[in-house]
Description:
Layout: H1 3-14, H2 21-28, H3 32-57, H4 60-63, H5 67-104, H6 138-144, E1 155-156, H7 158-164, H8 171-179, E2 188-189, E3 192-195, H9 210-223, E4 241-244, H10 246-253, E5 257-261, E6 268-273, E7 288-290, H11 306-322, H12 325-345
Helix pairs in contact: 1-2, 1-3, 2-3, 2-11, 3-5, 3-9, 5-9
Pfam families: HNH_2
InterPro entries: HNH_nuc (IPR003615)
Domain HNH nuclease: 188-259
Amino acid sequence: xxxxxxxxxxxxxxxxxxxxxxxxxxxxxxxxxxxxxxxxxxxxxxxxxxxxxxxxxxxxxxxxxxxxxxxxxxxxxxxxxxxxxxxxxxxxxxxxxxxxxxxxxxxxxxxxxxxxxxxxxxxxxxxxxxxxxxxxxxxxxxxxxxxxxxxxxxxxxxxxxxxxxxxxxxxxxxxxxxxxxxxxxxxxxxxxxxxxxxxxxxxxxxxxxxxxxxxxxxxxxxxxxxxxxxxxxxxxxxxxxxxxxxxxxxxxxxxxxxxxxxxxxxxxxxxxxxxxxxxxxxxxxxxxxxxxxxxxxxxxxxxxxxxxxxxxxxxxxxxxxxxxxxxxxxxxxxxxxxxxxxxxxxx
Length: 347
């Protein structure tokens, strides 16, 4: 079965339901392979019930039934199968919400496994994970990203320190600053190193890796990319980080800001703002920026991995198109309040 055929059949299966989230997962998965793998999960759920239907309608009792009895049984069994198919697809919908979206949104206590019979027993255990803490190479990242927030164009305050200390540095920074030396149009901030794929996905108790195996397996199957390059401390690699000002960093972590490639312009990316903040947040000129993208043929390149950017952007788009962002934000707020109570009162 081709990717297009799988996609079409999966879309037809979902078209009977007035849902927005699962169809968005299917439509906006960041690669063709990811779309195919989401499609096959949907089709395998459907295939289970197609087999049950064929088995029931071809049973000896049905073959010997009268025309009227056969039609009545067929109608009743179709209603039953539609209900069961609905339950199966709702499980998949819940799975992507709790094991893909919510962990990237900061909530990892609702992770659930898929338990369909067509999945192998080692579906999750065959995907090992490694725990680590956060780290970054801020100096290298500042230099690579031109001491600039890649979303807003704000320069890092380190440039002011360099100027005060008489460090000439790279002339490309000073051309902009010198042009506005007396009108204070240059906006500066203390830039932060932001992870594209959250480092929190590798921040767990080493004795309890099970739910993180589920998270990473779900993320890899959805994306269609090989994410072994993010295992353990590698999640802190420069290829998974970029420099942002604090506000842009918060929006990026909240899945309200993303970067998507500008067609036919190498290393040029559009800065996307989602939801109620769109149009209000000050961005770089033309809302596009240059990102040093990693060359997969090079082992020394310190550029950003474009696959990671694609995954992050896809999640932002899914939340926007499905309309569930506000709902998940409320859930996260409630969860954080409960966690704070537990920390304060020790219950």
